[in-house]
Amino acid sequence: MSYITIDSSTSSTTVLVFDEKLEILKKFQKEHSQIVTEEGYIEHDLEEIYQNLLELVQKASEILPNPKFISITNQRETFTLFNEKDGKPLHNAIVWQCTRGQNICEKILNDDLKRTKIINKTGLKPNTFFSGSKLKWIYNEKEEIRRKIDNGEILFGTIETYLIYRLTNMESYISDTTNASRTLLFNCITNEWDQELLNIFNIKKIKLPKVINSSNIFGESNFNKIFNKIIPIIGVAGDAQASLFANFCFNKGDTKITTGTGFNIQTNIGNKMFIDEKSLTSLAFTHENKNIYALECLNSYAGGTISWLKNNLGLIKTVEESEMFSKKEKDNNGVYLIPAFSGLGPPYWNSEARAAFFGISASTNTNHLIRAGLESVAYQMVVYLEFMKKTQNMELNNLSIDGGMVKNKFFLQIISDLLEIDLSIPELEEMSSYGALLFGIQHFQNIKNLEDLRDFKVKKSVIKPNTNKIIKQSYTSWKEIVDKHFLKNQE
Asked: Among the three residues 223, 240, 257, which one is the final residue of a domain in this structure?
């Protein structure tokens, strides 16, 4: 007997089969539709996601017909509204990228009392990333849904809540602390749905799931009769927090970077929540009824910048070529990209900024542009981490990086050189799935001390820092450009 994990992400569903040694036997994956409405709002078809999950679990069951348990990790913030009686969705899922709640967020941001309450109770800033404003938008704009919410017929939940409710035949209406913490409705100090937060969004009658720690039993299911017996669902967490756990960021200062289209940085700050104006404060996980918190940086462009070089500018044919062409030049020849395609993220928080190349001359060639693009991704990460270290007087004790960009060693070396720290790269790519599995194992084996999970630690390779005067000067120049052209006019 071994294990199965489900990762219900923004773009696809991935089902992994793990053996007893926690090595992946098989991976199954299927993308789902990205629905963009006429207004530019972003949604997902919940029935499609659910049926994709069953299809992939069916394939996994042919390899492993009797798993010990199944764990779930999922895209955070995306939320669902579904019928209490049959679990069927009443609306497409509203995706975290969707901005339909922007006007509602702006009104809250202009109300000091409401804004301060949200920040102090959730650690998050009123932003359309999170569920609250978009739930309020649905409540305001959809009369039939508003009536059903007021009549108590509709259940609210993030993706894992919806999937578990369907899988358990409407018996388990439940979430975990990491997912509940991303709604702006959950008090991340008391670990309860908060009436004051619900009042701010004026959605007081919405039904909300029970919330438990990630390392718990969330229900049981035969997965629509795929299995011949009931399988427990153990270990559930939002994808970013699951990755933090999988990277063993258990001590203060431990940090992980996850790269994809964008990037996510989380740094363990211990069991006391504090607010940092330039970061988000996240509930990382709950252990022995005590919360562990993390400072978090979200940025929409990492691999997305490389895709832009490929798809929009046609400078490279594959993302792998970004490393090859960058290494052909000894430096960037004074060319810099400020990748503010949707504004400048933390620590700058300039939503009005837009991307630009600087320093192009008659001697600039394609390689210089590509290198400037690749360098800019690393610089965004380093500038945030440097700022956090300085403002919080905190050392980075352990820095790990995972996700799609870890194949680019040139990019990784830049980060290590600038931060002057070892950079650890897990051999396993699916760290969010592995984190959910570790939460499950923690409960299944009744592991009380996190240090006892060390036997399950993923092997990592290490990038050692070099003395690189060229890249340090380039980074300094990049920061000076940001300061001169993007920050001087800010209030």
From this structure: 240
In a domain, 201, yes or no: yes
Does one domain contain both 212 and 272? Answer: no
Q: How far apart are CA 350 and CA 353, in angstroms?
A: 6
Straight-line distance from the first to the last Cα atom of the chain, in angstroms, rounded to the nearest whole number: 60
Average of per-residue pLDDT across 227-250:
95
**Same domain assignment for residues 375 and 254:** yes
Burial class from Cβ neighbours inside 10 Å (0-12, 13-18, 19+) for residue 127 reads buried
Rg (CA), the chain: 22
CB burial string 303-329: b at 16+ within 10 A, e below: bbbbebbbeeeebbeebeebbebbeee
The band of 1, judged by pLDDT with boundaries at 50, 70 and 90, is low
| Residue 287, in any domain of the structure | yes
Which residue, among 74, 57, 75, has the nearest Cα to 17 in the 3D structure?
57
Residue 80: strand pairing partners? 157
**Crossing angle between the packed helical segments 469-482 and 366-392, to the nearest 10 degrees:** 80
Close Cβ partners of 127 (under 8 Å, ≥ 6 residues apart)? 105, 133
Do both 197 and 317 map to the same domain?
Answer: no
Residues 74 and 141 in one domain: yes
Contact partners, residue 62, CB within 8 Å, separation at least 6: none
**Domain total of the chain:** 2
Give the position of tokens 């993030």: 158
Closest C-alpha to 337, from 325, 352, 353: 353
3-state SS assignment for residue 127 = coil
d(CA 94, CA 170): 21
Residue 266 identity: Q
- Label residue 38 by pLDDT band (50, 70, 90): confident
- Shared domain check, 289 and 236: no
Of 351, 418, 364, 409, the residue nearest 386 (C-alpha): 418
3-state secondary structure (DSSP) of residue 162: helix
Distances from the Cα of 462 to the Cα of 251, 348, 382, 465, angstroms: 19, 30, 18, 10
Same domain, 348 and 476: yes
In sequence order, what are the residues at sequence separation of 6 or more whose Cβ sits closer than 8 angstroms to the Cβ of residue 61? 223, 226, 227
Range of the domain at 363: 248-426+459-491
Cβ contacts of 358-362, under 8 Å, gap ≥ 24: 358/481, 358/485, 359/333, 359/334, 359/335, 360/335, 361/333, 361/334
Give the model confidence (pLDDT) of 49-76 as tens digits. Answer: 999 999 999 999 999 999 999 999 999 9
| Residue 257 pLDDT exceeds 50 | yes
pLDDT reported for residue 488: 63
Residue 93 maps to which CATH number? Answer: 3.30.420.40
Which tokens go with 335?
């060319």
Indicate if 196 and 265 belong to the same structural domain.
no
Which residues have C-beta within 8 Å of that of residue 101, sequence separation ≥ 6?
A: 128, 132, 133, 134, 136, 137
